[in-house]
Amino acid sequence: MSELSLPTCSVAGLGVRKLTLEDAPLLYAFFEANPDYFMLVEGGPAPLEQAEEELLGELPPGWNYSENWMLGYQPADAPLVAVLQFVTDLVAPKLWHIGRLLVATDLHDSGIAQALYHDFETWARSQGADWLRVCEVQNNPQAGRFWREQGFTHVRTNEGVQVGWLIHTADILFKPLNGGTLEQYLALIEQNHPKQSDF
Q: Which pTM does this prediction carry?
């Protein structure tokens, strides 16, 4: 895939950019300042090396994809206030997987998460994405509600999903961007995605 443009950001005062390995200290500072997600989902605070590992963007062997992105949102000359990680063409062309959308704890319930997601969805569609996919662990019900409120639909539930130190039951959710059906989505997954590696 050719290099994508960057999405716009509709939140006043925030800029968006693609984070690179050089941004690992900035990303780790965000993880450290906002530990609630990691405590709940991974069983402890994010270790120092996690920021670098996530920016390297490597997926497990056997996963076909175009690129693993991490977007950072921040005011000018200030720390990050949100990050969005996603993978393009995961398993099948035009199927994008959202790994995480994290907003600073003090901005929860401000509407920023919804605005950033809307910006991202509009941009993803303009870049050729037909499907969006997320995986949410059931002990994080606030995130599950968020994605359903954005129009995502439950596909299936996976048991025994390890995230960090914890083992979870996780829900797979999807959203068609251009009128696709669940049957069409499942056909993509069945043909291209080994179930033993699913998350």
A: 0.92
CB contact at 8 A, 36 and 103? no
Q: And the tokens for 178? A: 């251009």
* Residue 77 within a domain: yes
Structural domain tally of the chain?
A: 1
- The pLDDT score that the predictor gives to residue 196 is 43
Q: What is the DSSP letter of 105?
A: G
82-121 pLDDT tens trace:
999 999 999 899 999 999 999 999 999 899 999 999 999 9
Q: Which pLDDT band holds residue 193 (cuts at 50, 70, 90)?
A: low
Question: What CATH number is given to the structural domain containing 129?
Answer: 3.40.630.30
Burial 93-128 (b: 16+ CB within 10 A, else e): bbbbbbbbbbbbeeeeeeebbebbbebbbebbeeee
Q: Which domain holds residue 182?
A: 15-197
Beta sheet of 67-74, edge-to-edge order: 15-18, 67-74, 82-88, 95-103, 131-137, 166-176, 153-163
